[in-house]
Amino acid sequence: MAKITIDGVEHEFEEGKNLFEACAEANGEKLPHFCYHPGLSIAGVCRMCQVEIEGVPKLVIACNAAVRDGMVVNTKTPRVRSTVQNILNFHLLHHPVDCPVCDQAGECSLQDFYMDHGLYDAEIDIDDKIDKGKVKPIGDLVMLDAERCVLCARCTRFTSEITKTHELGIFNRGNHSEIDVAPGKTLDNNYSLNTVDICPVGALTSRDFRFRKRVWWLDVTDSVCPGCATGCNMTIDHNEGTAYRFKPRENPEVNDYWMCDHGRLLYKRIVTDARLEHPTVGVGERREQSWWERAYRRVLELAESRTLVFAGSPHATLEELYALGRLAEAVDGRWLGARLSGTETGEGDDILFSADRTPNAEGIRRLGAGEFTVEQLREAATQENVLVVLENDLAGLAAEDSVLDGFAAVVTIATDGTATSDRAEVVLPTLKYAEKLGTFVNKDGRAQALNAAFPGPAEARDTIRIVRDLGEVFGHTFAWADTAGVRGEIASTVEGFGAISGGIGPQGVALDAGSVQPTPSGGEEAQA
Ligand code: SF4
Ligand code: SF4
Ligand code: FES
Questions:
Q1: N or C: which end of the chain has fewer CB within 10 A?
Q2: Which atom of ligand 3 is nearest to 49's Cα?
Q3: Dist. CA 354 → ligand 2 center (Å)
Q4: Rounded to an integer, what distance in angstroms lies between the CA atom of residue 410 and that of residue 421?
Q5: Is pTM beyond 0.90 here?
Q6: Residue 375 phi, psi (nearest 5)
């Protein structure tokens, strides 16, 4: 370890640690900066992170310096301050200062640093500024406003170092240098919106999000992307029950600082025209809106002299799958499995995007909840059986509308209308991942927590409550009343899940590698 003094206070850091990071940890705030980003190589081009190091005659940029034992560093001297002020002034020389109409306002580093270090005196007349163009779409999702760019080269480093797609470059020289897409290219890779996140100013903005909501009106809730088995950590940025965007949340164990565009845009599927808002009873023309107790009683009637066959989903949480498994046991039902084999896969990449497009396939595997084939589904579809399916459009996935027709009836716990809910005698509306608590286990066996950003439709109920209520209707009382209770029972009773007993922090917890339960084949007794 190296002893280093920063602004008069002694600290200990690893010898060789990046000095920018050391100053941030020591002072609880980052030095002014545009080009430094911990997920990218050091560029050292913005010159904003100046510090004074005793014994070094010139000021030094902290992002390109390393901690050495005995170093004495000052970040707030008049010399540092005046240098940073002048560098910032230089960055602003040709900037249009169109903050009132810029959608980056509220999360713009240039604006923020200007409040602290601005000289508040324009040195160049607006008419003399170099015009670099405005509002140019450079891909399906990204808009470029080149005159706002501070040439920090974060976006170009991202496309050369992370995606290796090289769409962006800095063209021309001197005052005329500007960012643009390379000739013949567009910024359309599946990670393009990360350039918007890392652009410290309003030069790159999201065509999807821009001007839809000022960022200071947004509430931010930590969550996990449901788009594939990677489980990127993200925030749901929302206002008054509406999600406006997903943004990546740093987690070095999962997604570093990034997420893909496919996952990011899934926020659009939270509010849909197909949302199921009320319990219903009856199929086709007989379908009518119901009340919960009547819908539960209808399930009881359907189960009379028939067997309930249960199917889960890789989109359901660990707690929901476990609870449904306990219900299957309590009513002497059959557990079919929690995934229709061979469905919901696509092409992955070697950055983040997984071929498995479901968020909890590993949770299914570790619970031993199993998969089933279309053939097994067809075999189970008899007049002696009633299918109870949780968040799974089996009719749609099987691409065979009639696959459920052989069941005496279908009961679905679902969020949106689907080919399966169209065939259901009882529809029990439940909550989406942005509206509830729960756990997904990602492909590497990391348990990660969902949080409720906003409530669901007034009449929709949490699946744990629905399962508990159904248990009561069938004369069985479970020991748990909510998600936390189910999670506690999983931690204490299912081998390999002990790590979640102390709760799941914002970065998730790695489950014991040996925690996989035996997987039942379709139609065996409940193991979820
Ligand atoms: S567009 Fe943004 S990220 Fe790219 S160089 Fe300019 S300021 Fe930096
Ligand atoms: S890689 Fe997967 S988990 Fe990550 S953002 Fe994309 S879809 Fe979501
Ligand atoms: S942040 Fe250090 S030079 Fe840009």
A1: N
A2: 2
A3: 7
A4: 8
A5: yes
A6: -60, -45
> Would you say residue 434 has pLDDT above 60?
yes
Q: Count Cβ neighbours within 10 Å for each residue of 240-258 and write b for 16 or more, e otherwise.
A: eeebbbbbbbebeebbbbb
Report how many helices (DSSP H) and strands (DSSP E) the chain contains, helices first: 14, 23
- In tens, the pLDDT along 385-395 reads 999 999 999 99
- Say if strands 2-6 and 72-74 run parallel, antiparallel, or are unpaired: parallel
Between vectors from CA 242 to CA 237 and to CA 243, what angle results, nearest 5°? Answer: 35
Q: Between the CA atoms of 331, 332, 334 and 335, what dihedral angle is there, to the nearest 10 degrees?
A: 60
Residue 73 CA to ligand 3 center (angstroms) comes to 16
Three-state DSSP state, 413 = strand
Find the mean pLDDT for residues 97-104. Answer: 89
CA-closest candidate to residue 186, choices 136, 133, 149: 136
Rounded to the nearest angstrom, the gap between the alpha carbon of residue 429 and the centroid of all alpha carbons in its chain is 24
- pLDDT band of residue 93 (cuts 50, 70, 90) is confident
CB 207 within 8 A of CB 143: yes
Nearest CA to ligand 1 atom 6: 149
Residue 220 has phi, psi (to 5 degrees) of: -125, 125
Ligand 1 first shell, C-beta below 6 A: 149-155, 179, 198-201, 203-204
Q: Is the CB of 190 within 6 Å of ligand 2?
A: no
Looking at the CA of residue 31, tell me the nearest atom of ligand 3: 1
Q: Which pLDDT score is estimated for 517? A: 57
Atom of ligand 1 nearest to the CA of 156: 4
CA 213–ligand 1 middle distance (angstroms): 22
Q: Ligand 1 centre and the CA of 149: distance in Å?
A: 5
For residue 42, give every residue at least 6 positions away whose Cβ sits within 8 Å of its Cβ, in sequence order, or none. 36, 63, 64
The pLDDT value recorded for residue 516 is 59
CA of 16 to the centre of ligand 1 (A): 28
Mutate to test the pocket of ligand 1, among 154, 158, 206 (most ligand atoms within 8 A of CB): 154
Using CA positions, which residue lies closest to atom 3 of ligand 1? 199
Per-residue pLDDT at 156: 98
